[in-house]
Amino acid sequence: MLTEIAAIAREVGAYILCDEVYRGTDQQGSGTTTSIVDIYEKGISTASMSKAYSLAGLRLGWICAPRNVLERVAVHRDYDTISVGMLDDHFATMALENRDKVLARSLTITRTNLATLAAWMETQPTLSWIKPRSGTTALLKFDLPMSSYDFCMSLLNETGVMFTPGSALDMEGYVRIGYANNPAILQEGLKRVSDFLARHA
Ligand SMILES: Cc1ncc(COP(=O)(O)O)c(C=O)c1O
After folding, report:
1. In the chain, what are the domains?
2. Minimum-distance ligand 1 atom for the alpha carbon of 58
3. Mean pLDDT in residue range 151-173
4. How confident is the prediction for the chain on average, in pLDDT?
5. pLDDT tens across 97-148, in order?
6. How far is the CA of 63 from the centre of ligand 1 (A)?
7. Which residues surround ligand 1 with Cβ inside 6 Å?
8. Strands of 43-48's sheet, edge to edge?
9. Alpha-carbon gap, residue 135 to 111, rounded angstroms
10. Average pLDDT for residues 16-41, to the nearest whole number?
11. 3-state SS, one letter per residue, for 50-84
12. Given the CA of residue 59, which atom of ligand 1 is nearest to it?
């Protein structure tokens, strides 16, 4: 698909800015898909420590792009940021020096938890989905007589579980679950959601 998108962009000489922050969380193989910069000469890839490296909050990321783009980005960055925080730099360096271990841990969590979520989905008559092939979130379509906002507010108030309403993503009728948390918490959360759905069905 990326190759097809690159072919369309190439026809008009357009750049493609590709947010690759979830690179490294695929459910199959090594976990890492091809980057846009490996297949398109005007590809721009950005990523950070926040997802595959499990270090959201460090405020540290990177960009890979053609040299002329990097030069302009560097000037702009000097203007508004100057330097990365030293503590962020310290901890990101530790993680990157242990990249293989950190990424393997993330893959174990996302793959184990998605299997847990998939098994649970089989037991839920009011929910349907397209099982994700990468990332840390899934969209669940629900068959209940309420808006996604009411669904999420009731769920939060009654059970303490938080989903994102599809309406916030222009997808009414859906809720979004993040499944990359602690496996025991995910299991307990799903149990509570089962009870909630049974009560409201
Ligand atoms: C697709 C995507 N890109 C980027 C980010 C943000 O990453 P960072 O906080 O490191 O800028 C997020 C975080 O929610 C995200 O979901």
Report:
1. 2-97 (3.40.640.10), 107-200 (3.90.1150.10)
2. 10
3. 98
4. 97
5. 999 999 999 999 999 999 999 999 999 999 999 999 999 999 999 999 999 9
6. 13
7. 19, 21, 48, 50, 56, 61
8. 16-19, 43-48, 61-64
9. 10
10. 96
11. CCCCCCCCCCCEEEECCHHHHHHHHHHHHHHCCCC
12. 10
Cα(118) to centroid(ligand 1), Å: 24
Share of the chain above pLDDT 70, in %: 100
Mean pLDDT of 141-167: 98
CA 61–ligand 1 middle distance (angstroms): 10
Between CA 91 and CA 171 the distance in angstroms is 37
**Per residue in 37-57, pLDDT tens?**
999 999 999 999 999 999 999
Cα dihedral across residues 133, 106, 137, 6: positive or negative: negative
Torsion of CA 192, 125, 138, 151, to 10 degrees: -60
Span between the terminal Cα atoms of the chain, in Å: 38
